Amino acid sequence: MKDSHEPFVKACLLEAHRAFRKGEIPVGCVVVKEGRIIARAHNRTIALKDPTAHAEILAIRKALKKLGESFLYGCTLYVTLEPCAMCAYALVLARVDKVIFLAQDEKLGAVMSLYNLLDETAFNHRVRWEFLPVEEAGRLLRDFFKNLRHGKAGEG
User: Fold this and answer.
1) For a designed S-S bond to 98, which of 79, 107, 128, 146 qualifies (C-beta 3.0 to 4.6 A apart)?
2) CB count, 10 Å around CB of 149?
3) Secondary structure of residue 97 in the 3-state scheme
4) What are the domain boundaries of the chain?
5) Which residue in 27, 13, 24 sits closest to 148, CA to CA?
């Protein structure tokens, strides 16, 4: 992993661990602007009883509020799992410059695995993307679903 990514990867993994401990799907996210984290979030779909409460959506909302802006120009979003279709398009709508994700989502990934939404030329904004594989992100997800199958969500 490139050293410049390390603090942001660690911060997003920390958020994923928080979700894991709460019995949420362990996805963590941070929004970075000018080398500083301006927002962080993890999945909260169960706690909020909101199917749209994905880490990316919550982090985007926090970042917009913090900046007092309508768009996230100049921001990079780090997330532990490849964004789904909802989150990928939210990145476009929010005008995020770049997304960096740490694990592929072969079933629902909308950046490179199942769909390639961020490469869609019809959209009015292009979000650059990078897959930066980090074993811990994938392992955390595998452990979560293994525990869920065995009735032990949130343990690990």
Assistant:
1) 128
2) 9
3) coil
4) 5-149
5) 24
54 is in an annotated binding site: yes
- What angle, 0 to 180 degrees and rounded to 10, lies between the N-to-C axes of helices 55-67 and 85-93? 20
Kindly indicate whether the domain formed by 5-149 is annotated with CATH number 3.40.140.10.
yes
Q: Are 39 and 56 in contact (CB under 8 A)?
A: no
Q: How far is CA 41 from CA 31, 53, 59, 78, in A?
A: 9, 10, 5, 11
**DSSP designation for 116:** -
Marked catalytic residue, from 15, 24, 56, 82: 56
pTM as predicted: 0.93
Q: Binding site annotation covers 42?
A: no
Q: How far apart, in whole angstroms, are the C-alpha atoms of residue 147 and residue 152?
A: 5
Kindly report, residue by residue over 77-105, the tens digit of the pLDDT: 999 999 999 999 999 999 999 999 999 99
Tokens 């900046």 belong to 67
